[in-house]
Amino acid sequence: MGKKKRPRRSFTPEFKAEIVELCQRGDRSISQVAKEFDLTETAVRDWVRQAEVDASTRPFSTKANDADAVASPG
What we know:
Blueprint: H1 13-25, H2 30-36, H3 41-54, H4 63-71
């Protein structure tokens, strides 16, 4: 049989900020941080992306917008 689905967890903003900081230091990959804290890579990537948007270091984008940017650079 397949994996059992684990219950949805919730995390405090402080915990998310700590995870984002660990990722942004650059000494560990998002994958490594996710594994270390038993998190999904997708969740960690979303937290990092949102922190960048909140800090205005990355313009808001959606996956559709990202695809458009790749399709028509410049």
